[in-house]
Amino acid sequence: MAKIQLIIFDLDGTLVDAYAAVASSLNYSLKLVGCPPIDDDTIKRSVGWGDRNLLARFVPKEILEQALSTYRQHHKEALITGTKFLPNAERVLRKLKEEKYLLAIASNRPKPFTNIILKYLNVLDCFDVVLCADEVAHPKPAVDILLEVLSRLQMSKDQTLYVGDMPIDVQAAKAADLRAVTVATGSCTQQELLEAKPFKMLEQVGELLDFLSESQ
Prior knowledge:
This is Phosphoglycolate phosphatase. By secondary structure, the chain is of the alpha/beta class.
């Protein structure tokens, strides 16, 4: 394949584990609006589509805005204590940057929360572009975020690799005519990822360096 110069990453489930923060903020907001708590496994299976869609699964429409406002206020603090790197993620980012790859984030998280995570983990400076769902017309699995990253960095599709952890990541990449690499460290099973037919499936992001060296 053509030499990769740009790697676009999803965030949650790909580079970081923020499920504890999401669970804490979700159940806090549900309690305040009088809804029952949700177990961790259900929450983990429900993330990836943005916080509004997450809340909409568990609260009535008429109190969604109240619950979402409460969630977002709580989440600013919860992210600090409830987020960590997935195995080898920081090492991979530092190595890729050292090797002069362009790096980008394409996340369905709102931009303020994405920045909190990247600043807290001290890797914001690794990325040439950080783009989020609240900055484009349509979130993943639409192509908007990915195409906007390419436009901002003036990179071609054949020079770009997209790395994510969900079938919607593969869908977005394919719709944008990008090669999608999946990692099995998020909320989906390996079978679900295989059925999405990514270009390559890895166990975790730590395998990305070997994949790049072997394929170029």
